[in-house]
Amino acid sequence: MDEELVLLEEQLATAHADIERLQAQLAEARAKQAEHESRLKETLRQLEAARGDLTAAAAANAAREEEVSRLQAQLAAVQDERREAVSRYREAALAREPDVPADLVAGETVAELEASLAQARQTVAQVRQHLEQQAQALRVPAGAPAREGPDVSDLSPAEKIRLGLRQA
Which residues, other chains included, contact 50 with Cβ-Cβ below 8 Å and sequence gap of 6+? Predict the structure, then answer.
């Protein structure tokens, strides 16, 4: 029986060693599990934070898009008002200067209209000056021309006598 007892004690010692080894492995596995759970919790916390940031960014983006739309509408309204003001200015300038042809005055801004109006004034002045010069060149004095006799300075005395007898 001693042999059996020794054998049983050896088996018991081996079993205790196995239990200690298994307990160490279990402790190691539990530590790894705790570490993984901790990492999982941190990852989930980061995911929730990222989702919150994403939601906030989406809301901010929507607000910016709304602001852009509002500003675009304001810009369109201001551009319409500017076009209307430029059109009214053009009409007033043409009414103030009826000699300037309307088709010579164009522009999208007041500055462009002013430049166009100045060019049109210059064109009208040049045409007017040209017409006045042509009228001066074609001007005929009123009434009959002054009567003058023929130039007799180059005639001989005999020709002068004949001319005088013919006129008498």
Answer: none
In sequence order, what E strands does 23-92 have?
none
* pLDDT tens sequence across 40-81: 999 999 999 999 999 999 999 999 999 999 999 999 999 999
- Full DSSP string of 10-39: HHHHHHHHHHHHHHHHHHHHHHHHHHHHHH
* DSSP codes joined into one string, 85-113: HHHHHHHHHHHH-TTS-GGG---SSHHHH
Residues 50 and 1: their CA atoms lie apart, in Å, by 71
CA torsion angle 43 46 48 53 (round to 10): -160
End-to-end Cα distance, the chain: 197
